[in-house]
Amino acid sequence: MKSVVKMKSEGKPDIKEFRELVFEIVNMMPKGRATSYGAIARSIGYPSHSRMVGRALADSTVQNIPAHRVVNSQGELSGKDAFKTPGTMRELLESEGVTIENNRIKNWRKVFWDPMSEIRLD
User: Domains, the chain, ranges and CATH?
Assistant: First the structure.
């Protein structure tokens, strides 16, 4: 896995490579765990691009990416409207054993998967 996306001269990431890295990170996440847009952005070297991570994941269903495992930094299902129905994200997480209460992951700190500490580059 690459650790940093190539930057263009104006400091913006290469969109195609950015998306590929986001998808790669999300595919590494185990079932029953979830992460945040910001954690993914930090793991690929763009800590201030969490919204761009969300946009990359918005059409990830075509690519069969488990985007339902990516939520906001508080564990809220902020991306639920990007799915077929607003309840789809919740259903997918619950099918993996994640408990949702009031549109938020219960025990967020326990469920949280931090790519920076959990991916081994051996």
Answer: 15-113 (1.10.10.10)
Four-residue CA torsion sign, 70, 104, 48, 12? positive
Q: How, if at all, do strands 104-105 and 100-101 pair? A: antiparallel
pTM score above 0.85 = yes
Per-residue pLDDT of 36-56, as tens digits, reads: 999 999 999 999 999 999 999
- Residue 83's nearest CA partner among 59, 107, 56 is 59
CA atoms of 41 and 35, how far apart (whole Å)? 11
Q: Write out the H or E segment, with its range, that includes residue 121.
A: none
In tens, the pLDDT along 51-74 reads 999 999 987 666 789 999 999 999
CB of 54 closer than 8 Å to CB of 71 = no
Task: Round to whole Å and give the CA distance between 44 and 117.
Answer: 13
Q: Which residues contact 82 (CB under 8 A, 6 or more apart)?
A: 57, 58, 67
How many whole angstroms separate alpha carbon 120 and alpha carbon 116? Answer: 9
